[in-house]
Design a protein that fits this description.
The chain has about 230 residues and is an alpha/beta fold. The protein has a single domain, classed as Rossmann fold (3-Layer(aba) Sandwich). About 45% of the residues lie in helices and about 10% in strands. Strands 2-1-3-4-5 form a five-stranded parallel β-sheet, with helices on both faces. Strand 4, helix 8 and strand 5 form a beta-alpha-beta unit. Pfam families: Lipase_GDSL_2.
Length: about 230
């Protein structure tokens, strides 16, 4: 089939058509996206924790970081919660791997450690020193922090439990810039229907409850992100 001159532009005609097309697109670029501008990326929130953060006994999609991220997105926040949980980790372990975790370049950090300190009977003074070190290093980097508190199991005695709780209260007073969530497992600890058979780790329903309760303080944390 033959095409006439008016149907198929020649070599220079094609260039002119392409030039006009590019110019037409360019006319709309300033209104849609400034030249050189990049689409905004999600705010990166690192969750430094133990088996609760790691999602022990759960699928990755059921773990706390994933469910917390889902709730934040449902609430309109463009955020990515980075899971940095290691099962069995103590505050000492979290302190030792902090720099490694920060390689993810987070813009805010949730510190959710201390449960294993309580289970192992770590002296509260050591737990305090480790968490203080973590909070001070994050403050030096200018990173907003949410500190999630923890309670010791009752079998270690009332005196230990009281001193353990005071560890987090003291850190709260010394670091007023941090968002404080008194107890990570609030509303879930001790509830058989919300925990796995070991009665320590939340099941999927328990994780949803933790994420629901944490939503407001995490939203407060996001408000502290530079430019947030």
């Amino acid at each position: 089939m033959a095409f006439g001159a008016s149907s198929m532009p020649g070599r220079y005609g094609r260039r002119a058509v392409l030039r006009r097309a590019l110019l037409g697109i360019g006319l709309f670029l300033p209104a849609a996206l400034p030249l050189g501008a990049r689409a905004a990326e999600p705010v990166r929130v690192l969750m430094l924790g133990d088996s609760i953060t790691a999602g022990y006994g759960l699928a990755q999609a059921e773990a706390l970081p994933a469910r917390l991220e889902a709730r934040l997105r449902e609430a309109g926040a463009d955020v990515r919660v980075i899971a940095a949980g290691v099962s069995g980790d103590t505050t000492a372990g979290g302190k030792s791997r902090l720099d490694w975790a920060l390689a993810e370049r987070p813009q805010a950090v949730i510190v959710a450690l201390g449960g294993n300190d309580g289970l192992r009977g770590v002296p509260p003074a050591e737990t305090y020193a480790n968490l203080k070190n973590i909070l001070e290093r994050l403050k030096q980097r200018g990173l907003p922090v949410l500190l999630a508190g923890m309670l010791a199991p009752p079998n270690l005695g009332a005196d230990y439990g009281r001193e353990f709780r005071k560890t987090f209260e003291r850190l709260r007073r010394e670091h007023p810039e941090a968002v404080f969530y008194p107890f990570l497992l609030e509303g879930v600890a001790g509830e058989e229907s919300l925990n796995q058979p070991d009665r320590i780790h939340p099941n999927p329903r328990g994780v949803e409850e933790v994420a629901r309760r944490m939503l407001p303080p995490v939203q407060e944390l996001l408000s502290k992100v530079q430019g947030g």
